[in-house]
Amino acid sequence: MNYQKINSETIDLWVENGWEWGKPITHEVYEAALKGNWEILLTPTRPMPHHWLFELTGKKVLGLASGGGQQMPILNALGGKCTVLDYSKKQLDSEILVAKRENYHITTIQEDMTKPLPFENESFDLIIHPVSNSYVEDVLSIWQECYRILKPGGRLISGLDNGINYIFDDEEEKLVRPLPFNPLKNPELLNLWPLEESGVQFSHTLEEQIRGQLKAGFKLLDLYEDTNGQGRLHDFNIPTFWATCCEK
């Protein structure tokens, strides 16, 4: 199964149907960012702390699976020279739309982040990587590639799914699936999962995500948790996401 092809097509469809994470920021939000009034979401509800960023003027920034016209325009407004890599054409189209509207340049690359990244060693000062690893089976190779292409002192800022959402039913009331959630290794899950609607997704552990960053060579500077922003788990304040700030 070419699950990444399925997922790229699924996300294109989500964007066409008004997906929350595929809606570009407005001109007013971009103008506010130019004046220093900004926020970036890596997870559903909690904005990233401002101190996670250093001075970006002239710095090279990579948005890894970060298409959609949300994070990258803000980083451009803060002075970054931005490149975005995403396998969804619709998400990249949103980046191009904002860049044309606000008259700035962004490099867009349609590519699969599970493959070796098409950049030289030590190419970037910052990588921003909102929640997307839930659509990838192996995350360790991604952390290794991020470490390779970052300059010394560069930062990797990531949003991460902690896997809890996969164990519950749609009403978030009953435990219906065991972890790990991996349809490629447990085909029975495909019969219980709406593949056409949700693509092929995977749960990942703290060891894969945060320990994986450390094993790749990163130093963990800071982290926080977040909820889904709605639903029963959110109502009980159960964290379902992490965000991390790491340094090479």
Q: What would your notes on this structure say?
A:
- A seven-stranded mixed sheet has the order 3-2-1-4-5-7-6, with helices on both faces.
- The mean pLDDT is 96.
- The chain is 31% helix and 19% strand.
- Helix 5 (140-149) packs parallel to helix 8.
- The protein is globular and about 50 Å long.
- The longest helix has 14 residues, at 3-16.
- Helix 5 (140-149) links the parallel strand 4 and strand 5.
- The chain has 248 residues and is an alpha/beta fold.
- It starts with a helix and ends with a strand.
Write the layout of secondary structure elements.
Blueprint: H1 3-16, H2 27-34, E1 60-64, H3 71-77, E2 81-86, H4 89-102, E3 107-110, E4 124-129, H5 140-149, E5 150-161, H6 188-192, H7 195-198, H8 206-216, E6 219-226, H9 231-235, E7 241-247
Parallel strand pairs: 1-2, 1-4, 2-3, 4-5
Antiparallel strand pairs: 5-7, 6-7
Helix pairs in contact: 5-8
Cα gyration radius (Å): 17 Å
Largest sheet, spatial ordering of strands: 3-2-1-4-5-7-6
Mean pLDDT over the full residue set:
96
Estimated share of beta-strand residues = 15-25%
Quantity of strands, as a count: 7
How would you characterize the largest beta sheet? 7 strands, mixed
| Uncertain segments | none
Query: Terminal Cα separation, in Å?
Result: 34 Å
**Helix content range:** 25-40%
Order of helices and strands: HHEHEHEEHEHHHEHE
Structural category is alpha/beta
Supply the number of helical segments: 9
- Silhouette: globular
